[in-house]
Amino acid sequence: MQPTQAILIDERDHVATAFVPLAAGSSLRIQAGDACHDVVLREAIAPGHKFAVVDIASGAQVMKYAASIGRASQAIRAGDHVHLHNLESLRGRGDKS
User: Fold this and answer.
1) Of 25, 33, 62, 97, which shows the fewest CB atoms inside 10 Å?
2) CA atoms of 31 and 77, how far apart (whole Å)
3) pLDDT tens string 30-83
4) DSSP assignment, residue 95?
5) What is the model's pLDDT at position 59?
6) From its phi and psi, is residue 61 left (phi > 0), alpha (psi between -120 and 50) or beta?
């Protein structure tokens, strides 16, 4: 049995979190509740880092834990690494909502 490579917390989430190093080109099936996503990673993902399981439009809220963790600062494709280069945090900011 293959160890769990990544986790999708809630079926409404847009991102999953890697448990192990994942190579670019890896094919994963990620499930939570009724949601099931087949994703091919477009870049390497380090343990603890997020990757998109669906396409996310620029400016859209990014969901993890069934809650917004920020806004996409550019279009993000399924399989892309999601981090500071394409995700703008909105927490603790009074100037953005």
Assistant:
1) 97
2) 18
3) 999 999 999 999 999 999 999 999 999 999 999 999 999 999 999 999 999 999
4) S
5) 96
6) beta
Alpha helical stretches, state H, 49-93: none
> Would you say 63 and 12 are in contact if contact means Cβ atoms under 8 Å apart?
yes
Tokens 């859209």 -> residue = 60
Taking the CB of residue 13, how many other CB atoms lie within 10 A of it?
Answer: 26
Token digits for 60?
């859209």
Q: Burial level of 27, CB count in 10 A (0-12/13-18/19+)? A: exposed
Q: Decide: 33 and 10 in contact? Cβ < 8 Å.
A: yes
